[in-house]
């Protein structure tokens, strides 16, 4: 059902947000839906209210990339409400209804030092037989390099010659990434602490992590594209987790 589920999520995000289309929200199972965006109300009614409100701002939605992994659909999107934001959306399905949702948004930034935006680059899904191998590669990379700070192993996972970086504060120079991650002797303000999930389809893998950035509780969503078992392209969104008193549901960000 991956093709149908991708279309349903495409319509949910595109028609629901741009037009406030209540029918697009029908893919949400209101009786079971678990909402992990802390600022959104629980259930389909909360989404319908949110989309109707957003439609009044004449929003624009672009689904840049969309993927399927078992019962999960995950998408890389660009939203233009009152401000432009880049987002990763994750939906879990049971049958033909989505029952759980996570997301991570960041204000769109100018192109980075290598001239890459937060969304340009390859979009085609290939290498489907390599899905599980690529998932394992990224799982090991996140745990070994991002969390445990084994920075010298970075080039074991990244093809530095062909690497394209889309994070707005970095560049294609892998040495800059090494400096940003830091080491025990040269600590960084960037701390990945918990690896929550890894979603994959073919040459694309999304990791969802929790940690701290400059002392603030933060969600890190990182999308990787792999070729021949190595990372050749990377996109991300980094979002501060709002304080508990601002939440509109009790499900938590992760």
Characteristics of this structure?
NTF2-like_dom_sf, five-stranded mixed sheet, 2 domains, 35% strand, 5 helices, Nuclear Transport Factor 2, Chain: A, alpha+beta, 10 strands, 254 residues, SnoaL-like domain-containing protein, globular
Determine the structural class based on helices, strands and strand pairing.
alpha+beta
Sheet of most strands: 5 strands, mixed
Rg: 18 Å
**Average pLDDT across residues?**
93
Helix share, percent: 10-25%
> At the first level of CATH, what is the class of the largest domain?
Alpha Beta
Poorly predicted runs are: none
Order of helices and strands: HEHEEEEHHEHEEEE
Helix segment tally:
5
What is the strand content? 35-45%
Measured between the Cα atoms of the first and last residue, the distance is 25 Å
CATH topology of the largest domain: Nuclear Transport Factor 2, Chain: A
How does the overall form come out from the CA principal axes?
globular
Judging by the overall fold, what is the CATH architecture of the largest domain?
A: Roll
What number of domains? 2
Number of strands: 10
Q: Name the strands of the widest sheet in spatial order.
A: 1-5-4-3-2
